[in-house]
Amino acid sequence: MSDWPHDPDGEEGSEGMRKYGHAVIAKKINEDEDFPLNRDEFVAEYGEDPIRIDYETVVSMKDVFEQVDQEEFVDFPDLHKALGRAMRAEGYWFYEGADQFIKNSSA
User: Fold this and answer.
1) CA separation for the pair 51, 70 (Å, rounded)
2) Would you say the pTM of this structure is higher than 0.70?
3) How far apart are alpha carbons 62 and 80 in whole angstroms?
4) pLDDT tens, 25-83?
5) Quick one: three-class SS letters along the chain?
6) Is the pLDDT reported for residue 1 higher than 50?
7) How far apart are the first and last CA of the chain?
8) How much is the pLDDT for 3?
9) Which domain of life is it from (predicted)?
10) What b/e sequence results for 26-61 when a residue is b if at least 16 CB atoms lie within 10 Å of its CB, and e otherwise?
11) CA dihedral 36, 40, 89, 107 (to 10 degrees)
């Protein structure tokens, strides 16, 4: 594992439990205060933070956002859709059967 600012499975990283992908990113955002959310400002602040993708893979926040073209997000659903597309493009979408849920979806 790289030298992360904190242990992704420690108290600061996962609040006592292992959290993955979107859950780790979402906990860094205050829904009432942070939207609209600017991608570049968010990545500048949290880009070096570790994001656990699966039980053995940890990448930086900036790696997750590398494929996110959208510059601003109006709310959580808007952000989650963009992150889902980016994570699938980068091979960071590890959920079994994920393709079943997106075939007839615009996500």
Assistant:
1) 20
2) yes
3) 15
4) 888 999 999 999 999 999 999 999 888 887 788 899 999 999 999 999 999 999 999 99
5) CCCCCCCCCCHHHHCCCCCCHHHHHHCCCCCCCCCCEEHHHHHHHHCCCEEEEECCEEEEHHHHHCCCCCCEECCHHHHHHHHHHHHHHHCCCCCCCHHHHHCCCCC
6) no
7) 31
8) 62
9) Archaea
10) eeebeeeeebebebeebbeebeebbbbbeeeebbbb
11) 10
Query: Who contacts 52 (Cβ-Cβ below 8 Å, separation ≥6)?
Result: 8, 9, 13, 14, 18, 19, 20, 21, 24, 58
Whether the pLDDT of residue 7 is over 80: the answer is: no
